[in-house]
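Consortium newsletter contribution from the modelling node. Members have asked for a concrete example of what our holo predictions look like. Here is one, prepared for the iron/sulfur cluster complex that several groups have been discussing at recent meetings.
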Amino acid sequence: MGTIYSHSRLSSFENCPKQFEFRYVLKVPSASEGVEAFVGKRVHEVLERLYLFVGKGQIPGIEKVVDRYHKLWEETYDPERVRIVRENTPLSYYRQLGEDCLRGYYLRHYPFDDSETLGLEKRVVFPLDDAGEYRMQGIIDRISRARDGAIEIHDYKTGARVPSQRILDQDRQLALYQLGLARTYGDDTEFRLVWHYVAKNRTCVSTRTKDDLAQLRTETIARIDEIQAATEFPARKISLCGWCEYKDRCPLWASPEDLARIEAEDAAARAEKRETGARAPEPADDSQLSLL
Ligand code: SF4
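And here is the predicted structure:
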């Protein structure tokens, strides 16, 4: 069985092949994460827990939800690891942002009865082709059945920008999840793709036709072929370089001295791995890397 791809893996290659190489080919461990991703993870965790309680018929009060968020923050925040990229933005701003996201979401959706939750943080793995050579995976924030019977695929976004409807109608991530879920719920089931832009307290919805999904399947297979055939991974400067966990070893940003030092360290690590037979772990996929 070959590599299982994900939307994040494909996006990493599309955005910057060098980052893809660091993350998925060389599997260089990430020593840091941007504070935006850190906040996003905490918000996701709290919303998952909220819906777990809702499913048991126990809706927690809003203050309890916010308390849970701050407790999780205290338990997981590591100043050595979490980086603030934007200058002059204090940590307190980000902490408050997470709280505001949760308060807004809670008040907008209380008492959480507009749909029945079918799955939370659900991992889906599915083939794109009949032979099962091209496989995808993803983690869906929430799956639910709406009152009209449609299956909804929910995604929480903590980023500040809300894309236009045109962009959302072409979004790949949730449409891929629909391809995966159609294997469970049937091709003729009505699906809705739902994004919750919690920092802006906005909900956006899109749908896909069968033709859209067929085209997505073809394009994704073509992209995987392109990645599998790649032998070179050039660095490409992008607006998200500041958040890239490999900036300190990137040929476009690091000094020649740093690059030489890192190359020597990598060579030593590779030699040690060969001796011990140790394998680098797969990087976490579909984490909250696209939260900006
Ligand atoms: S810092 Fe920018 S150019 Fe360098 S690897 Fe990361 S995304 Fe690519």
